[in-house]
Amino acid sequence: MEIFILAFFALGYLVLAGADIGVGMTLPYLGRSGAERREVIAAIAPFFLGNEVWLVATAGVLAGLFPELEGELLSGNYVLVVALLLSWIVRDMGLWLRGRVPGRAWAGFWDGATVAGSWGLALIWGLLLSHVLLGIQGPIALLPALVVAALFATHGLTFAALRLRGALRERAAVLSGGAGEGRTYALTAAALAAVGVLAGLRLPLHPGTAGSRLVPVILVLIPLLVAAQGWVWWTFRHRVTGPSYL
């Protein structure tokens, strides 16, 4: 049961947060002006904080149910974990601060922070997954990391195609072809989930002794998390019609 709980949160993060990370990566392509970039960011504004909860939950499950694995992952990838946290902070700062002061220079700087942080997240996740899947580190690990980053970007484009209208939607749907945005989104989501599953199969998943106490609590919380996520998606199910509070 502990393994399924970890997989649920980890794969949920990759699929859900992978979309807003990918939109951030492709922001310069999707938004050619300040107004367009505001509308593109509005496509992920209602979702990105909720998506990050899945990563926090994954870290909590690791610490509570797989303490040995958590120690191995942190000690063996300390630099990457720190870089991941910094990229996360930079990306979120870009999203929150871009609209706080009027002016093109201010917004442009924080748009750059959003793009840089999003690419940092995608590449570092690619490096971590490459290390787990292939057992490689160093410069050569950048090659599979770039493949994973490209998958994040593609996933983000398909999500943007589902959320945007007009010319922005046409740009985002460049990879969807005749398959439709929904089907393409399902394919990229399945690809990200497959990468996560393959990585999980390579990990030494040996639960700790706290499972008997923590698993019932987590099983109670999971429906609440899913219900909250579903409510957000239902509330903001319509395509973006203008800039958001960000």
Task: Provide a brief overview of the structure.
With 246 residues, the chain is mainly alpha-helical. It is 78% helix and 0% strand.
Distance between the termini: 39 Å
Strand content: under 5%
Number of helices: 11
What percentage of residues falls in helices of 4 or more residues?
over 70%
Rg calculated over all Cα atoms:
18 Å
Residue ranges: pLDDT <50 for 5 or more in a row? none
Q: State the major sheet.
A: none
Order of helices and strands: HHHHHHHHHHH
The coarse silhouette is globular
Structural class: mainly alpha
Please report the total strand number as a whole number.
Answer: 0
Mean pLDDT: 90
Write up what this structure looks like.
By secondary structure, the chain is mainly α. The protein is built from eleven helices and no strands. It has helices spanning 2-25, 27-30, 34-44, 48-65, 67-76, 78-97, 104-134, 142-163, 166-172, 181-201, 211-235. The N and C termini lie far apart (39 Å). The mean pLDDT is 90.
List the helices and strands and how they pair.
Layout: H1 2-25, H2 27-30, H3 34-44, H4 48-65, H5 67-76, H6 78-97, H7 104-134, H8 142-163, H9 166-172, H10 181-201, H11 211-235
Helix pairs in contact: 1-4, 1-7, 1-8, 1-10, 4-5, 4-11, 6-7, 7-8, 7-10, 8-9, 8-10
